[in-house]
């Protein structure tokens, strides 16, 4: 059975931006695309375990602030070295101005 967890309000994130969401021992990033869709993925870079919340969001990608590795935020795919391990993505549901992720 899905465990939907409230992550933030839609108003908390501007288009083409992200926020950090911590739940228990897990860190996530919640991204609002320029198309106004929401995405959730691991919040720690798979290359050197840096928080992605300080990274940049652009053209469907999130860029790590440390070594500029990039990931497709829709699929979690590592798209530029030095990262070579994909990030896990999580289902997102938006309801009544709130963003929920399935953990």
Write down the domain tally. 1
Query: Can you tell me the overall shape?
Result: globular
Give a count of the beta strands, DSSP E runs of length 2 or more. Answer: 11
Low-confidence stretches: none
**Major sheet attributes:** 4 strands, antiparallel
Number of helices: 0
What is the CATH homology-level superfamily?
Answer: Rieske [2Fe-2S] iron-sulphur domain
Under CATH, the topology can be stated as Rieske Iron-sulfur Protein
What class do helices, strands and sheet pairing give?
mainly beta
Percentage of β-strand residues = over 45%
Strand order of the largest sheet: 2-3-4-9
User: CATH top level?
Assistant: Mainly Beta
Give the N-to-C terminal Cα separation. 10 Å
InterPro entries: MocE_2FeS, Rieske_2Fe-2S, Rieske_2Fe-2S_sf
Pfam families: Rieske
Organism: Neogemmobacter tilapiae
GO molecular function: 2 iron, 2 sulfur cluster binding; metal ion binding
